[in-house]
């Protein structure tokens, strides 16, 4: 799978952080189309794994494909995490010290590394 070229300019950040209470936060992703394309590719990979299981393919081959899917999802998660840190969290820190946003970010990172 080809990786997305990295811009040499400032890191991506969300364009708009809107929150109407904690249950309905919304963010416009700066590279939404690229993220959607990557997720659709991952969706196809998962379908491929399903086909491999249905076709009784060799266990190691299936496991390698599962590993590739996990890696691709980690890449998407890292991109979104970076956008969040450079946008929403940075904005919160500048506006009010960002203690709540930093605590939320750390909770997410802890869950991601499990």
Task: Give a summary of the structure in a few sentences.
This protein has 114 residues and is mainly alpha-helical. The chain contains three helices and two strands; from the N terminus they run ββααα.
Number of domains: 1
Using the coordinates shown, work out and report the CATH topology: Methane Monooxygenase Hydroxylase, Chain G, domain 1
Determine the fraction of residues in helical runs and give it as a percent range: 55-70%
Strand order of the largest sheet: 1-2
Task: Please tell me about this protein's structure.
This protein is mainly alpha-helical and 114 residues long. The protein has a single domain, classed as Methane Monooxygenase Hydroxylase, Chain G, domain 1 (Up-down Bundle). The protein is 66% helix and 5% strand. It has helices spanning 32-54, 59-96, 99-112, and strands at residues 17-19, 25-27. A two-stranded antiparallel ribbon has the order 1-2. Strand 1 (17-19) and strand 2 form a beta hairpin. The radius of gyration is 17 Å and the shape is elongated. The two termini are 25 Å apart. The model has no long low-confidence stretch (mean pLDDT 86).
